[in-house]
Amino acid sequence: TSFAIVTWSNWDCRVMLESECRFKRIRKPPYFNRWINLKVPFCEVFGGVRCNLKEAVELAGLAWQGRAHCGLDDAKNTARLLAHLMHRGLKLSITSSIFWQSADHSHFMHQRQQQIPSPPECGLAYQPPKWKNAPTFITLFPIQPSNPMKESHVFCYCGATSVKQVIRKPGPQHGSFFFGCGNWTANRGAICSFFKWASESPTTAT
């Protein structure tokens, strides 16, 4: 393609777009699997300052337009910041990607990343991947830290690592394990309706 997706942080393309497309069963165009995280060049230009998008726009000498964390307003201000950095002569390149590789006749998921040496809070800086053959793009969720009540290979509909729970109510399913939405709090409950029996549950035993 002759264009690139530009976002502020990797969250939108790596996590949220993935979960939304899966939840709504929408095919994601492959060009969304390579993007420019504008945080990376911004850190390089402004000496590694740590800030959010609104603060970055203001640090660049621009006036914030609209409401922070509103999708359209964030996109508009990201575009204005991008244009400002390009006018300053900044050269941009792909900072992150999601792609397939093959090895021993099997496929596995891989994320190509190289961290900035300094400062650590700047986020990530990358060089464009050098491929002999263009890879086939797929969807991918990030690996989550291990937790005795969570399993990183089971994700709920909203993209979070699902939570492993046990049924404590007396009855035929008592003691059975299942996976539920990982975005759960006591106040609001679960974000999505994900439910899957764990392999060790009596109901799934063979």
Report on the architecture of this protein.
GO terms for molecular function: 3'-5'-RNA exonuclease activity; nucleic acid binding; zinc ion binding. It holds the Pfam family Zn_ribbon_GRF. Keywords: Exonuclease, Hydrolase, Metal-binding, Nuclease, Zinc, Zinc-finger. This is GRF-type domain-containing protein. The chain has 206 residues and is an alpha+beta fold. The chain has two domains: 118 residues, 2-Layer Sandwich (Nucleotidyltransferase, domain 5); 55 residues, no CATH class. It is 22% helix and 21% strand. The strands form three sheets. It has a four-stranded mixed β-sheet. A four-stranded antiparallel β-sheet has the order 5-6-7-10, with no helix packed on it. A two-stranded antiparallel ribbon has the order 8-9. Helix 3 packs parallel to helix 4. It is elongated and about 65 Å long. The C terminus is likely disordered.
- List the strand order in the largest sheet: 1-2-3-4
Anisotropy-based shape: elongated
Ranges where pLDDT stays below 50 over 5 or more residues in a row are 100-152, 201-206
Instruction: Tell me the CATH superfamily of the largest domain.
Output: Ribonuclease H-like superfamily/Ribonuclease H
CATH class of the largest domain: Alpha Beta
Largest beta-sheet characterization: 4 strands, mixed
Binned, the helix content reads 10-25%
In angstroms, what separates the terminal alpha carbons?
49 Å
CATH-level-2 architecture of the largest domain? 2-Layer Sandwich
Count the DSSP helices.
4
| Secondary structure tally: strands | 10
**H-E order:** EHEHHHEEEEEEEE
> Which structural class should the secondary elements be placed in?
alpha+beta
Mean pLDDT: 72
Q: What is the CATH fold-level name of the largest domain?
A: Nucleotidyltransferase, domain 5
